[in-house]
Design brief:
There is one protein chain. With about 130 residues, this protein is an alpha+beta fold. The chain has one domain (about 5-130): 2-Layer Sandwich (Beta-Lactamase), CATH 3.30.450.20. Helix content is about 30%, strand content about 30%. The chain has a five-stranded antiparallel β-sheet. It starts with a strand and ends with a strand. Mean pLDDT is about 75; it is low at about 1-10 and about 15-25.
């Protein structure tokens, strides 16, 4: 049975004009190491959401963006709760959208535990493991 999950990238800053690093520059770097470098250099975090179990697994960069400790367990309901109240309605269909297989690219505000406001750009793509 195929496993379906959502891979998301959250970013608190826009990409620069030069775009992404060329493949020849990263060919010798493992995916995990590369993601750590990206997170360390920018305000970026990654997370995946297993539709079958409901489990969300976040990177250290994601927790840093959200202002949370990595020991905090996350689920979709928790993530929606930190979205700014004025932005929740516009994102209320996110779960249904991604579960239907559509990619998303949205910007919204979150309120961190220290009450600071942060803009997030969330890009998500559904991956099916056959």
């Amino acid at each position: 049975m195929p496993t379906t999950s959502l891979m998301q990238c959250c970013s608190a800053s826009q990409t620069d004009e030069e775009g992404s690093v060329g493949a020849r520059r990263i060919s010798g770097i493992s995916s995990r190491h590369f993601l750590k470098l990206v997170e360390d250099q920018g305000q970026v975090g990654f997370w995946s959401w297993d539709f079958e179990t409901g489990q969300i697994t976040g990177s250290f960069g994601l927790y840093r963006l959200l202002g949370l400790q990595p020991s905090v367990a996350l689920d979709f309901v928790d993530l929606i709760k930190i979205v700014h109240p004025d932005d929740r309605a516009a994102n209320s269909d996110m779960q249904a959208t991604v579960q239907s297989g559509q990619a998303i690219n949205r910007e919204f505000r979150i309120i961190r535990p220290d009450k600071t406001l942060r803009w997030i750009q969330n890009k998500a793509e559904v991956l099916v493991d056959a």
